[in-house]
Design brief:
Carbamate kinase; alpha/beta; VC0802-like; 450 residues; globular; 12 helices; homodimer; 6-stranded antiparallel beta sheet; 8-stranded mixed beta sheet
Chain lengths: 450, 450
């Protein structure tokens, strides 16, 4: 929450990162054909209890026994961060950010120690690393700190000595020696930053889904797991509400060219490899259909079509920490414009309240809204070079008689807002219209490092 | 458990400790008559939940608002250390000591952050200090580390700047940069070591009892809270099972001449000041009557009275980490000896089992025992210069027709073992026999720093 704006902003320059090398899919470079350096990150659900931590330990052990070197990154035990956060918020209405960080970081301290014990119980040498022990240097933006520099010498010495490091994710150390935390998706960021800094062959994000799909399998029966997807597509999917990876870690991985693989912690499989665009043999026009529920739209109609109006409307919303997604403006013949934008549904009432005085001061005709909408998007790097994606999308919607309320496009994405009643129908018809149920000819599976 | 032996052993030399100054009871030196530097330690029960942490914050705030400078030391939230310990033991039969320390230290990390927040919520400036942030250097004896050196510059700079340090107790930092813990009574030790190093005017152990009593008030109705007690007496009481303070912290305080006060966290009062012997106006012969339940005695009778026998009996017991308390040996006329010692009742069966082969190999006559005994002791520095304490004790027991099974004496203590049925009666009769119900003339209350 606190650092939502920064999370989608630019990633701070990371010192000491190895020069990006051209990682080749399915082939491990530099350490012999059968030995790779892998960063494996396990989220809160994966380490949800003692039994699960033991299963994660066995999974890490399997990688080690295959001859790989592994650096593990863990989140807190599922629910622990929320428990600690609640304790802090009971102590003070506005708890101190520095103390909140010290409090929350205890969660990853606990899980990293437990997982190290679990590895040792299996006969492997291991040790936990807290941020101050690495150290993992960050700036002093508590609750949403940015990694600045990671000392890798102790970690790599540990790896070389056969002692598997189990790094507490999410936490960092400020120059003042205080504990910081990286904000939402923090452990993913820890893993990717570590992988970039040690030039790992792959960064594996082990989670409760077994990869990235062409559409939500709960909605589309013949949705397929994608063997590969580009960083840009993944970034669009993540920002569309796909919970697989936080946009920040994807952006980070793309920037530093870290081969990133999303795969299931407990289900065998190769997951989805997130790669550079030019590594794909053939670019499918559309890689997947994404959606976001719980959206709301707000329209201020009949506003004067003069410079500065948009800022007068969106300015107060942004200052209230409300995230605005799509923005559309049309100018009518009478010189007045209709201004529409979307926000999260939870912010709908607050936004309307906020804009009532703005509507009056602009002498706009009306302020209206609808909090029963959803966003459906098609994403694919291939659409850059292929015209007609939007047309095919509109055709598909028309064929199902679904009214399109708003349209927004980016280089690799077309999004439409529809009545939420039509969400599932829209996703299924688009999945079918773009032929996503059938594997495309050029797509191959990469060899996972497992 | 792990470091039970060391806990009662010698305290390691502590570097950088201020020269002991002659602290005068009830009068604060060096910082003006009304301003003192106090170390306040709060145990797990005191910070048992959010509401209690808030009450502790108010208590610290009261001291600050009285013009004192305070360094706070906290234990983990009551039950948290046990919860973490259990998690660790579920991960591995013999969990790694270094990882256990990283795991357990999270407890104090959480409580120190919460208490710092609580102080800030009351408008005071505060910050948490973890062992690595001070740093609090210890040796590398994980699970029972010894404090070697405390850097006080950052802490004292914080105090001088009006930012109250809230130190996570129980934890330390090894030279290798690993987190250590101090073992049982660890937070008391943290507090006393800190008080010694910063030359605090007083170290206040805030707990759930309001002081040290002449006897257990649950047994003796007219038991009195002692305004003062000597370190030696406190040490005897602590080792007799009185749960107020761990012997290690008392020993530490005595060694470095830290004025130590035991008082209630939530009940107003002056508690009990633990002082150097020569500060007492008049030494009462006996300060209090203590007892230990849950004892057991074991007798090997008819053992050859030759050198090395005692070691053959006690050796295996000690090596099995079983704590032996009293040891008595009598030699009979036939050149054979009876050897009796006491252990905790929980260790009774294991000890008997352990000694069966020893009994055989020594060709001793018999191995027997009794796990329904209790120990009753009178403690007082005054008995050094007064004969007849033992006699008066024996008289009191005889008057109640209580049979004495074993006797053991030290310079300031006489202990007897009796059938546990007579425990309460023995305590009451001794409390009365030594006139402990009436305040002695020379005893005065010291002014507490609250």
């Amino acid at each position: 929450m606190v650092c939502a704006e920064q999370a989608v902003g630019l990633v701070a320059p990371l010192s000491g990162v190895a020069e990006p090398t051209s990682h080749q899919v399915g082939l491990v470079l530099g350490r012999g054909a059968d030995m790779a350096l892998i960063v494996q990150k396990y989220g809160g659900t994966s380490v949800g209890d003692v039994e699960r931590i033991q299963r994660v330990a066995r999974r890490v052990a399997t990688s080690l026994e295959s001859g790989h070197q592994v650096i593990v990154v863990v989140s807190a035990i599922g629910g622990e961060t929320d428990r600690l956060d609640a304790l802090g918020r009971q102590m003070a209405v506005h708890p101190d950010a520095q103390e909140m960080d010290a409090l929350l970081a205890a969660g990853e301290q606990i899980s990293s120690a437990l997982l190290a014990m679990g590895l040792m119980a299996l006969g492997h040498r291991a040790r936990s690393y807290l941020a101050h022990q690495i150290p993992m240097h960050t700036d002093a933006q508590h609750q949403c700190a940015r990694i600045e520099k990671i000392e890798t010498a102790p970690l790599m010495a540990s790896v070389a000595a056969g002692v598997t490091p189990v790094v507490a994710g999410f936490q960092g150390l400020s120059e003042a020696g205080r504990i910081t935390t990286l904000g939402r998706g923090g452990s993913d960021t820890t893993a990717v930053a570590l992988a970039a800094t040690v030039a790992a062959d792959e960064c594996q994000i082990c989670t409760d889904v077994d990869g990235v799909y062409t559409a939500d399998p709960r909605i589309v029966r013949n949705a397929r797991r994608l063997a590969r997807i580009t960083f840009e597509e993944m970034l669009e999917l993540a920002s569309l509400g796909s919970k697989v990876l936080h946009p920040r870690s994807v952006e980070f991985a793309g920037k530093y060219n870290v081969p990133l693989r999303v795969l299931s912690t407990f289900k065998p499989g190769e997951g989805t490899l997130i790669t550079m665009e030019n590594e794909l043999m053939e670019e499918p026009i559309v890689s997947g259909v994404a959606y976001a529920r719980n959206e709301a739209k707000i329209t201020m109609s009949g506003v004067p079509d003069v410079p500065g109006v948009a800022s007068k409307i969106i300015g107060p919303v942004g200052r209230a920490q409300i995230e605005v997604d799509m923005i559309v403006q049309n100018t009518a013949a009478d010189g007045l414009a209709d201004f529409t934008f979307t926000v999260g549904r939870k912010d709908y009432d607050a936004t309307l309240e906020l804009l009532k005085p703005v509507c009056d001061s602009l002498s706009a005709r009306a302020l209206s809204g609808d909090n029963r909408i959803a966003k459906v998007s098609v994403v694919g790097v291939g659409m850059r070079s292929h015209a007609g994606v939007a047309a095919r999308l509109f055709d598909a919607m028309a064929a199902e008689n679904i009214n399109i309320q708003m349209i927004s496009t980016s280089e690799i994405k077309v999004s439409v807002v529809v009545d939420e009643r039509y969400l599932e129908l829209a996703v299924r018809s688009l999945h079918s219209a773009f032929g996503l149920g059938e594997p495309s000819a050029g797509e191959r599976e990469g060899s996972p490092l497992a």
